[in-house]
Structures are given as C-alpha cells and as structure tokens.
Amino acid sequence: KKMEQFLLDLKQEQFNGSYDLAYKTINHLRKLISQTRWTHAQELMNTIKKEGKKMITAQPSEYVVGNMVRRVLKIIREEYVRLLGESEESANKESLHKMLTAEGNERDDHTKPLKELKTTVIEAVNEYIDEMEASIHNISAQAIEHIHSNEVILTLGKSRTVEAFLKQAAKKRKFHVIVVEGSPLYHGHELAKSLASKGIETTVITDTAIFAIMSRVNKVIIGTHSVLANGGLKAVNGAHMVALAASHHAVPLIVLGAMFKLCLLHYSDIGGSEATFNRLASPQEVLDYYDGGTEELVNVQIYSPTFDYVPPELVTLFISNIGGNAPSYMYRLLSELYHPDDHVL
Amino acid sequence: MNNGDAENLTSEQKKQLKKERRKEKNAQKEKHNIPSKPEGEEPKIEKSKAELRAERRAKQEADRAAKASKKSDQVAANTKQKGPRVPANIQSVINLNKTILKADDPKVQKKAAKKLEKQQVPQRTEGQKKVALFSHLHQYERSLSITKNIGFGKNAIHPAIIRLGLQYAEGTVTGSNARCAALMSAICKLISDYETPPQKELSRHLESKLKPAISFLDQCRPLSVSMGSAIKYIKLQITNIPTGMSDSEAKLRLIKSLREFVHVNIVLAGEAISGYACTKITDGDVVMVFGSSSLITKVLCDAHNAGIKFSVIVVDGRPKLSGRGTLRKLCRVGIKCSYVLVSAASYIMPEVTKVFLGAHGLLSNGYVMGSVGTSMVAMAAKIRGVPVIVCCEAYKFCERVQTDSFVNNEIGDPRDLLVQNKSELTSPLLTNAAWEETDSLKVLHLTYDVTPPDFVAMVVTELGKIPCTSVPVVLRVRSLET
Question: Name one GO molecular function term (chain B) (predicted).
C-alpha cells in the first residue's frame, strides 16, 4: 500500500526537492530489503531492480530515484563480495585474464546464500543514509574556502544547499549576494528574504538583468537538480542563461551538489513522447488564464520548461560532500558509486 | 594663600575690583575710538566710501561689457562652419554628466535643487531603499507624488507638459517613438499657446520657457535618447528663426518643422526600415522578438501582409511584461505566435532562425541600448549562431559611449517587482512589508541594458543596412546635413 502511495506521489510530483525524494526512496528500499523474503543476493537484487523499474517509469525525469536504486545494488554487491572473504579491489579489477576466462563462478553469480548478508546490507544502507543527511553540512563547511570578503555572489532561484553554504560563509565573511528571481516560480524572493534576515546584504534582480549585472559579479554559485555523467548539469530553468552570461564575462561558475545527485545518464535531445530530460510545466505560470484565455490569444503556444541543460564547458567547479572536483573528473566518480552491470536496469 | 584671600574678599571689595576693571575697559575703548571721533576726519572716510562705490560700479560695468563681448564671440564661433565638431560634442556630454550621473554627490544635488526652484519645477523625492551599486543614479518611487507642490501662476509650466509628465511617470506613454511623438505634440501646443511678452524676442524667450518644461519632464522620467534628439532639433529650429519674422509666422513655422520631424524620422523612417527588413524574412522562418518595440511590430505585420509565411516567438521579461502587448498585436494580424519568458530563451533557441530586436538608442561605440533583457536574448542567439538583426531609426543614434549598463541607466520603481495585489497571499514574491522592514534586502528594477556589438549581425536603419560599428559614420553624415 505504501508502495502505491509512493508511486502516486512520484507521478504527481508531490515532493520537496531532490533531497527529500532521495531520502524517501532509500528508506523505501531499506524497507524492501528488511521486509521481503529472499535467500541469496541475486534474488534480492532482482526484487530491487523490479521495484526500481516501477519507480523510474512513474517519474522518468527524476534521476535521483534511479541513482538510489543503483547505489543500493552496488552496496549489495560490495557486501556480498566482502563477506565472501575477498577484498573489494580484486573483485572490481577487470583484468584481461578474467575477461577471457570468464566462468560463471559463485562470486559473479551472487547466488551463495549468506546469513549475515541481510544485517550487513542494512547496516551499509544506514551508513549511506547518514552520509546523505550530513551532505549539506559537509558542503557548507567548505564555504569559507571559496568566498572571500567583499565579494559579489550571484545565485539563481532557491536551493537549500546554496542557502546553507552562504549562511555558513556569512558567519565569518562579509559579502554581497545578488539573487536572480528565477521565473516562472520566483523562488529567488524566498531565498533573498531568508538571507537578508541573517544580515547578508542581498539584492533581488529580474532574469532580464542577469547580463547587465554580470560584469560586477565575482562568482556565480548555483545548486543543481542532478549532475549528468559527462559533468553537465540538469539545473533549474534559467541556469543556462546564467551560465552563458558568466562565461561571457569570465566569471567562475560553482555548482553545489551532494553525491547522490550524480547520475549515469547523458544528455540527449530526444523530444516528443520519449523525452525524459525536461518537463513542461503548466503555462499558467507564464501567461495566466486571465490574460491568455482571451479569444485573440487562444492559439498561442506557451512553453514553460522546468529544467535546463548546462554543458560541462560552462561549469568551473563542483563542490560536493566529498570535496571539490572539476567537471571533467565527474565520470570517474561514477565507478565508485555504481556498478557497470547496473547501468541498464 | 591666594585662595584664602579670594574667599576673604568682602562684597565691597569685589565691587571695587569690578569698578576698576570697568574703568580700564572704557579707557581702552576710548583709545580705539579716538581715530573716528575727531570730526575733521569724517569727510575723508565718507569720501573713501564714495570712491569705493564708484570703483565697484566701474568694475561691474567692465564685467558686463566683457560678458557681452564674450557672448558675441561665441555666437560668431557657432555660425562658423562645422569643421571640428568634436569638442562641442564632448562639451555637451560633460555638461550632461555634471548633473545627471551624480545623485550621490550632495553639492551637485543642492545646486540642482536650487535650479529647479528657480524654474518653479517641483523636485521629486528620492525613493527610500537605494541599491548601492546604482547610488549615482536617481531612484524614484511612483507612490511619492510629483505634482503635489506644483504651482499655477504666470510662469508656471504649461498644462500639456504637466499632463505629458504624468503620463511618462505613470507609464501610460512608453516606448521611445511614442514618447518622442507625444513630446513633440505637447511642445507644439506650448508654442501655439505662447505669446511673446513685450520687449522680449521670441527666440530667446521661448527657449527660456522651454527649459523649465524640460526639467519637469526630466523629473517625471529621465529623458530618453529619442527625446534628447528631438529637443536638440527644437532648440536648433528656434535659434534658426530668421530675425524680423513676425511672431505668428515664426510660431507656425516652428510647429510645421516639429510635425515634419516626427513624420520624417518616425513614420517615413519606419516605412523604409520595414521595406529593408522584410527582405530579410523568408518563408518558413521562425523569428524571435523581445519585449515590445513599435518598429519591430510594424515590420512583422508588414511582412505578414506581404504574404510571407513565418511564425514568431515572443520573449518576455518581468516586471513590465511588455511582450504581451506585442503578442496581442501580432495575433490580431493572424501571425502564428509562441510565448516564453526570458529564462526559457536558450531552451527554445534551437527552433529559432532569426532574432529581431528593437533599440532604445545606438551608442557611438556600436553598443545597442535596449530594454533590459535584450542582451540576454542576443547572447543566447549568438551562442547558437542565430543572426541578430536590430532595427532602429537614425534619429536614435547618440554620441554617448558606454561599455556597461551601470554608468548610465534608469532605475525604476522597486515596488513593481513585489506582490501587486494583497489577495495573492500564496505568491512567492516578496511583499512590500517584507521589503521595507528588512534593512539588508534591496530590490533592483533596471530599465535598460547595453548589448555588445559582437552579438549583433546587422542594424537596419532608413539609411540602409549597416554593421553596428558604423554608428559614428551615420552621426557624422547627419550632423553635416543639418
């Protein structure tokens, strides 16, 4: 029942941001592990894959769900291999010899039943949840290294990570923040109010003024919805314009995001019914019915995309809970998080 | 010991001491007064005073004569042909910058206030929370009335000008062409109602009547480039009135020339530009436009009426949301339209084949000054290799140079960005209360921004299609014509 409720929530987009969704997904998966009956690791992985596919098809544009599923699968594989007594590293190394002499042995099969597997897997998942809960704290602890005094920082919309980051830096440094409204949802106003209440000098500007203001900005710090495998971003609508203006004025663009946002997928321009990258939201936010419902405007097409793709060339630095990285390095981190056999569920 | 003595002084002894002191003082006074007391010396002093007065008078007359000669020299210099025109241009820019870009200099503001008082123009009160980056510009708020203290007397501002000023301040008349045309018609009214007082010359006095009117309009809303160009033209026409022409004839001649200015520079230029620009639109084009520009709307409507099949994407930005007006006009004519906000411009850009932008003014270094957001659209187009075509009449070219949008801009009312109706409780926008009570929270409402010339492929004017960097050439050609 709870599963159905969860799927319904996914379909109707009833969640507050990617952290919330990731947290719910992984709790859900933990419940699955503890409550369903399984005898060996392969059976568990199959169950999780099946459930995962259901969740992903309910909301294909939310990559965090898929990330959590694959992370759990990787955790299961790791724990299995560890319990079997072999070191993780030798299991992961794919030497040419192994590839040529591949036989279906127990290690690769994951069919050996192990008693302690359940408890160790649940322990590892709990550890991962703790790491996720601490991710915002870890990211904002790095704030002092990146913001110097009297800087002008530009940010877009409202991201919880960016808010915590700036508030942490404001404890030690004095700087100026310019918040872009972020049409059509205008969450930037909320962020500005929250920052100003902590005494940070904040100015709210419209999206149209980004290029005009950019010559005076020292750094652009934005949050993101997810990080793609090539180091590009799937960020809130308007981020691409900000990134373009920043690169024109040679202003560094810093992206804050926890590691659970890093996903295996690449950007593709597919449109139509197969489109999973972007979601077109209700045109009410752009042109409301009062103005747009009149007879003369009835044939107008209104676009209100939710996300933007920002190519990796425009991003200067990623700051995540494990430290700072260049976008060209992000693909390497994938191999630590997910197992290649899980790329296609 | 001394202290003890002082305390033991009786009141009588104190009185004695006081008397002695007074005597001494009087003696000293007398010493000083001795020179003025003897009567024999008074006429000498009076004579010296009279001499001083005469000297002063002589000095003043000498100064007046010197000024008069200077003026005649200047007039002689102006009637000389326009060889090196550049120094005058720079001088005019320097004079402009003396008052306009110094809202944070208290001395300059005092001077400006005095000047406005002399002209009987009410000074507008500044808004409360100014953004520090723009402290050199005036920041007004619509709620603080301009006309509360306006006087109605013999030397007051003409009511047509007051009406126009209020229309500017409220935003009823917007758009550079519309503002310029409205200005011309109001000044025509002022001229037709004008009567030269006796003993005064029309050309001199009319100009002095115009000055307070223009100051008032500047207080209502900073003058646009088109208005500046129009005012220069008016002043030139007034000084070029042949002496000896009767007043009524002169007034008719002025009104006719002003109407002609609007007709030639706005209406006819619009037709010419539309003709050139329509050659650039082909069947199957997807044209992107930003905000509202009367010229661009005309170009697109003409192209549609000529039978070209194209569709339009209108990009809009807060808080003016002027794109909706363009959307309505285009839909009425029957053009297929789409509508997005500026944050989605890069999302929709893969569909676009051409971008047409209107301009508020073109600067001498090739930068395009347009409504805020123009540079965003141009930037997004340049990245994808979509050509950007700017359409602008030649009278909007100005000699100013600018590289960023900070130095010279217009700051609008910050309240336009906040929640408008109290009923919108669920709106994420800031409320007036939230903005006012938090000290460190500022809201910036920019009106213009400046687009670098490398984003623009071509500028279409009535003189033809030119690259952005040819603006000073056009200015030179036009200055030689007038």
Answer: translation initiation factor activity
Q: Does the CB of B352 have a partner CB in chain A at under 8 Å?
A: no
Count CA atoms closer than 13 A to B342's CA, side-chain side: 30
Domain span at A297: 138-337
Contacts by B151-157, CB closer than 8 A, 24 or more apart = B151/B120, B153/B120, B155/B120, B155/B212, B156/B120, B157/B120, B157/B121, B157/B212, B157/B213, B157/B216
Domain boundary among A132, A152, A171: A132
Contact by Cβ (8 Å): B474, B163: no
Sequence-separated (6 or more) residues with CB below 8 Å from residue A58: A7, A10, A11
Answer whether B442 touches A (CB < 8 Å). yes
A241 touches chain B (CB under 8 A): yes
Q: What is the pLDDT along chain A (345 residues), one digit of tens a residue?
A: 777 888 888 888 777 778 888 888 888 888 888 888 888 888 888 889 998 888 888 888 788 888 999 999 999 888 888 887 765 455 555 566 666 665 545 456 677 777 788 888 999 999 999 999 999 899 999 999 999 999 999 999 889 999 999 999 999 999 999 999 988 888 999 999 999 999 999 999 999 999 999 999 999 999 999 899 889 999 999 999 999 999 999 999 999 999 999 988 888 755 555 567 888 888 888 888 887 778 888 889 999 999 989 999 999 999 998 889 999 998 888 888 888 888 877
Distance of alpha carbon A172 from alpha carbon A191, whole angstroms: 20
Both A182 and A320 in a single domain? Answer: yes
pTM of the full structure? 0.82
Structural domain contains residue A101: yes
Complex ipTM value: 0.86
User: Is residue A179 located within the same domain as residue A310?
Assistant: yes
Asked if residue A22 belongs to a domain, the reply is yes
What CATH code is carried by the domain that includes residue A286?
Answer: 3.40.50.10470
CB neighbour list of residue A293: distance below 8 Å, 6 or more residues apart = none
Question: Rounded to a whole number, what is the largest CA-CA distance in chain A?
Answer: 73
Strands B354-358 and B388-391: parallel
Distance of CA B104 to the CA centre of its chain: 16
Determine the residue among A206, A268, A286 to mutate to test chain B binding: the one whose Cβ has the most chain B Cβ atoms within 10 Å: A206
Q: Give me the amino acid identity at B48.
A: S
B342 chain-A contacts, CB cut-off 8 A: 183, 207-208, 241
**Residue A163 token pair:** 């808010």
Q: Which residues of B touch A202 (CB under 8 A)?
A: 440-442
Residue ranges of domains in chain B, CATH in brackets: 89-269 (1.20.120.420), 280-411+446-481 (3.40.50.10470)
Q: Which two tokens stand for residue B336?
A: 């297929």
Q: How far is residue B141's CA from residue B155's CA, in Å, rounded to a whole number?
A: 27
Q: Is B91 on the interface with A (CB under 8 A)?
A: no
